Amino acid sequence: MTDNSYSDIMIETEGLSKYYGDFIAVEDLSFSIKRGEVVAFLGPNGAGKSTTMKMLTGFLAPSAGTAKVCGMEVAENRDEVANRIGYLPENGPLYEEMTPLSLLNFFGDARSIPSDKKEHRIQTVIAQCALKTVLNKPIGKLSRGFRQRVGMANVLLHEPDVLIMDEPTAGLDPNQVLEVRKTIKGLGKTILLSTHILQEVPEVADRIILINHGRLIFEGTPEELKSEPSLDTWFNSKTMTAA
């Protein structure tokens, strides 16, 4: 196992591809993300964002190419990579009858976090995700925005080096969107954040990876994207929202 803990490259793909028979979900996708970067993974619905994220987290095996996290090839080091990643899928499952506090305690035990450290970690993520006012309310009774924060607290609990978030503001009202964005910006982590909402990009991201039909079509800063006139027609033709 290779662990490049001190490398600046935290996420890297090379020729990453996923096929389902004749259907191409992701093809020949290559990019890298440096330590501490927040990168928006942009593209219309069905572009291949979720499939790519599932390959990065080890939930799916690639058909070709490689995915590395913290210098480790995901396919060969799934357990170790899982310890280094916090993955927040779109509409991630939560135990609705539990409270945020009981859920964090449950997953702290499930991850074998030592009891003396677990309490400190729980209090830390409660503060990071602003959950103090709802700690003892059933998760099923919380607003969607608070449920999303509970999910975020859960994936932060084991102190991952890398966060991978799939549409974290989908379905939230404008105030909830602002709160989730504020939380993301304050985490200080290497983050790959998928979205199809254009407004999301300059608000949270240092850089953009833009894909369509599973292929990379742009990689750069939000300012560089604005200066690409060839992409104006592309954006206008896609089902991407601006709010």
Based on the model shown, name its key terms.
243 residues; alpha/beta; Rossmann fold; six-stranded mixed beta sheet; four-stranded antiparallel beta sheet; 34% helix; globular; disordered N terminus
What do you see in this structure?
By secondary structure, the protein is α/β, with parallel strands linked by helices. It has helices at 49-56, 78-84, 100-110, 115-128, 144-156, 174-185, 200-204, 222-226, 230-236, and strands at 9-20, 23-34, 38-42, 64-69, 72-73, 85-88, 162-166, 190-195, 207-212, 215-220. The protein has a domain at 9-93 and 162-236: Rossmann fold. It is 34% helix and 26% strand. The strands form two sheets. The chain has a six-stranded mixed β-sheet with strand order 6-7-8-3-9-10. A four-stranded antiparallel β-sheet has the order 2-1-4-5, covered by helices on one side. Helix 3 (100-110) crosses helix 4 (115-128). The protein is globular and about 50 Å long. The termini are far apart.
